[in-house]
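Hi R.,

As promised, here are both runs. First protein below:
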Amino acid sequence: MEARTVIPSMSTRAPALRPEDPRLVSQPSTIQERAGVGRRRVALVGAGWIAEAHARILAGIEGVEITLVCDPDRARAEALARRFHVQRTLASVDEIGAAEIDVAHLLTPPDLHEKLARDLLERGIGVFVEKPLALSAAGARGLAELAARRGVALGANHNFCFHPAFVRLLEKVRAGKIGRVEHVRATLATPLSQLEAGAFGHWMFRAPANIVYEQAVHPLSLVHALVGRLESVRTSLLSTRELFPGQVFHDRWAVAARAQSGTAEVHLAFGARFEQFRVEVRGTDGCLEADLRRNTLSGEGKTKWLEFFDAFLASSRRGAMLKRDARRELASYLGTTLGLSGQDEGFTASMRDSIEAFHHAIANRAEPPCDARVAAEVLEWCDEIARAASPAVPPKTFPEPGPARAGEVIVLGASGFIGRRTVEKLLGLGLPVTAVVRQAQFLPREIASGVEGGRVRIVRGSLEDRASLERAIAGARVVIHLATGGGSSWEEVERSMVRGTVAAAEAAIKAKAERFVYVSSIAALDTGGARPIEDSLETDPRPEARPVYARGKIAAEKALAELHRTKGLPLVIVRPGVVLGAGTSMQHSGLGLWVRDNHCVGWGAGEHPLPLVWVDDVAEALATIAGHPGKGLDGKALNLAASVPLSAREVVAELAKVTGRPIEFHPRPLALSQAMEIGKWIVKRLSGRSADPPSWHDLAARSLRAPIPSRTAREVLGWKPVEDREAFLERAVRVHRRP
């Protein structure tokens, strides 16, 4: 697929200020920012993961104080505020007054940027927006005009323009080291964790063009800095996949363009296996290449020497540049680890310098280096490239679900890896199903077919919204709780996984459901010993020695057991083993520690059989539990693991064989892993950083040595999972074979 656009000739303005440009401090500005003198009060609008990076950097800028955090998820806002000692939180931008805030850092999803920025600017509040500034160049220009009219600062966080490797490249280009720039080539090949996890409800997947504004802004901002405004472009779509029915995702793009000061090629690969982020510049007298992933710069130029010696010099000088940068990066890492210097790897440095440059500009009454006009020109690139994308599919509309039907089975987390197959199995038993999902625009095929046939109701809900849970669960006969919840800190896990699960259980009690099935994990068990683990409500007796995910599962199980004991919750706990099959990542943590997506370090020698289970067998068990008569399962815990004669080493070897990739398993004795973890812990403590001591108990549990017979599922449900070695490999592992 290919699209070509020619942009009409437009008058050009003076070159944009660059991050290191001395004019940043001295040039007078038409923006008279009132916060330029004295304390500058900052609001964080949005409390997602990027907000923590902003907060940490802002805390180190003199004269700046974070005075409030704003997010519709009040619990998330309060958690961030506590971590950075911020006194006030709000749920809506409408509550922010110009009298209390000078500048807002806008850190929300991209589709909210333009509206929220406009609301803040209208009130006379300066705004610093995470990329993209808007979802069109026209929108960015409108914001620029509004900011100028209101006399307040507006900037975009094109942080990679401040990446140390790119700044070094710009300095050499400006100094004329490679002559006049003729051509730029940029490559962004990046993995996407959301794509790998099947989180297709993320904004960047909701329309085919969204990925350009979410990810391509990074290399395009660098290309723009080198060759200026776009004049014409040809875009080719190299690869496309269907995520869910009707949901198209273009994962590889090729762009060829003519710009104000040269030509350019851009290669974009989203969900790439091998990560790259490079910018190459060819001039009339040399070339330069910045590797933003490795933070290195290399290049070559013309010399006076004969060709044979010129070739030797070119390679040796390029090698010397790379060696110098490699030594600097190693020294920086060691200095950071030992607490001798601040963190200065490429991304962190780019974020710090971008944010500091914006506030430095305000303090000196200068235009921000990446102001709205620069952002609009970058968005012109985005707009024209995005035209090649397939048309966005109009959001699907579903009828109001209406009241629950007789025998309704409610599935929380229905669109997930196990959930979608569970819905399919339930429909196969002729049971009415309600799928509770966060986003209903695109649905897995297993659910979509049921909706079209009128057998599946769709209800929007989430663990963090108690009211939506109660609406979704009203009238249920059975509730199957597959929504994981989670987070990187115990505070987040406790809020979503534990309290969210309790809220779902209490809604089931209120609805007088006959059965509440909580899908936990064998991570809640002590799986490090040699004795078989029989089915029971007992969990790992040392949750404090386990990571937050396992602790969350243990805490959720205990809270549910208490509700069963005190309030009669009709509870069944199900703990699947290492679940494999089509739709899950090859890099399952049950196989080992994946230090790269093709290098797996074993939790030991990797030679003992693992508690593996095919995803369809888990779904079959859940559907059988939903339809099982009587109360014989109430208060029971069922472990679900098949007895497949396969070790981690063998599974990884099979993955290498069927994918044709160099996927390797590296056995490592647990004692050596523990010694390495102790060494890291000692270094952290010596550098003054707090850190929990490494847990041998958790390391042993990760090895999954304990046999799991799963007797209750076999004897009570008649569960017969796939256990033949070849049959299991075919269904659960070879599904990853190379097309």
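And here is the second one, sequence first, then its structure tokens:
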Amino acid sequence: MVAICSLLLLLSAFLMFSIQPMVAKMLLPVLGGSPSVWNTTMVFYQAALLGGYLYSHLVSTKLKLKHQMILHGTMLVLAALVLPISYGDLHPPSGSNPIPWVLLTMALSVGLPFFVLSASSPLIQSWISRAGNRDPYFLYAASNVGSFLGLLSYPVLIEPRSTVALQSTLWTVGYLCLAGLFLLVALMLRKRVVGLPVETEAQPTEKLTWRRRLRWVFLAFIPSSMFIGVTTYLTTDIAVMPLLWVIPLAIYLLSMILVFAKHRPIPHKLVVTLFPYVLALVILASTVKVSYVSSPFYLISNSMVVVFAIHLLALFVAAMLCHGEMADDRPEAGRLTEFFLWMSIGGVLGGVFNALIAPTIFVQVIEYTLILIVVGLALPARDPGWRPSQLALDLGMVVLVGGCVTGLIWLCDQSSTLSAQTYRPLLILVGCLACVMCARRPLRFAMAVCGMVLVGVYTSQSFRQTIFADRSFFGVQRVESMGKAESGETHLLLNGRVLHGMQIFTSELETVPLTYYHPEGPLKQVLAARPSGAVVGVVGLGIGSIALYSQPGEDWTYYEIDEVVERVARDPRLFTCLAKAKAPQKVVIGDARLRLGDEPDAKFDVLVMDAFSSDSVPAHLMTVEAFQLYRKKLKPDGLLAVHITNRYLDLQPLVAAISAKLGLKMLVRQETGASVDTIERGRELATWCVVGLPSYDWSRFSESAGWVPGKQRTGIVAWTDQYSTLLPLINWDKAEQ
């Protein structure tokens, strides 16, 4: 019986967590590659999970077992009526906040199946407890094993081997198998508890206080907020790879598997002991900035792998701490569904805070930093004595630790004989150790961590000044200025760590395209091939650098998904590329593929594909169907230029495969040589492809000028709207740096 119930819960959870990335892949590509896409889907799933837990709590406490089984069986059948999940043409709103559209669309499509699946776990556990098992909580671990497997199997096994349509069909088959398994479990359980009235089926004897319930909510809120915060931080500020979105959620689920297991493999006392040291390590890694390879702090400051490992370790230990505290405080089996209900409420609040509230009240991604402070309050108090003087010291620790470390750094900064990369890391390390010493009192520890966060704010100040920052669904757009010097003031547009445009305000350089668009690069050669009075379309605006290539009498149109980017590009206090352009520059807001579909055929002489969300390319703009649309909107002798510069993905074989599939010719020019100093020269090494009909006069793109035919690679096939996978395109050498 227990084995069959475990299998049912495992399959249910597997389906729940494999459908999350599947639906995101089907539904949300038109919204770009921003981490907000994933975060918004997480809010929806957490809300649906809350609805399922509320339903299971009400059903298990108000209905007899027979009626519970009939009702849930009926819900399973109703949910099957919307399967298989599929979508036609999607038309999201053109505004900067598509979150309501996302939530509504998901509710109408996957809402009911996910709701029914989410209710299965607490219901089955409740039924098991009524069949004689006094502690069915271990089944929650089995459920999370299914969640863990479903989440990780999608990008590694399912996505690379199947189309979206096949994935939906297989998921439907799995759902039908689950419905049959549910019928079997219901019949077996019914025989064991037949005839029991509702009063004797579940009469909890344990009384719950509101303080205890709110503590469950708080403990569930922290890891929920933290895994979304880690996701946003790592995939925006460290390495913009959407494939990494699933890793923090997998760690979150793993912690639940471990703490609700019958025999915990990691003792909770060990987690409590380690947590202050791990959190101090995160503060150290986030605050210390060194460039000397010989420094013992170099790796935690510069190695992407080490930085990732530190933050993911902190997430794991924090989740183990919070979930472990909840598991130790779980009520009797009769209160099981209520326990999961409050846990789900905390999870939803964490998701809502990070995905919906934080982007509207913070212009920077600081919600992760805030949760690093709050998580200290989850530590169990090991020095519980309370006196007014102790409370004052607890609250004052933010000034005592933060103020002392900041003051010492400032004093050392005044000395011309000391190296900042020597004394700053050591002083920050001392401050982090001071935090650890406060760990016996949670409030004191949290305030000490807050003090060190403020130290990080002070030490992050540099010769660059942030003069503009705004945040939308598509990310944080930040404009930084370097002080005026002989070379002129320089403005940079950044999304996370990725540079999206640069302008140097001198009489010689203000009208010169820089970074990936510089006059010595591939794009200049492509645009030089356009006819007089050309019609040019550009997918992706940035600061409008490409507009500086325009000539009088030409027609230029940009397609940009983020309204904030247009505001930045048109503000003369920030950038003047559009204002200095020699031809009018029209900007169309919305998804480029949808907006291009509204344009007349054979309109453009040149179409430039330069769309990036941080360092990733929206998948739906790199498919066979997308290239067919581009070709349709180009004149017969028109050219498509595709920007494929990328730190972690090798996109050239993909463009070659798509071009070959459509019978088009493709050439690529990849700039090589020593690393270019962007700040000094305003130039980045770029890689561009040019695609057109074989009959085009290709003589102007000679091999001597750096253009070579695109090469296909074994194992990489052309993406379609039904199939795409990032795994074969990852440049693992760069990803490990």
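A quick note on the second one: Confidence is low (pLDDT under 50) at residues 196-202. Let me know what you think.

Best,
J.
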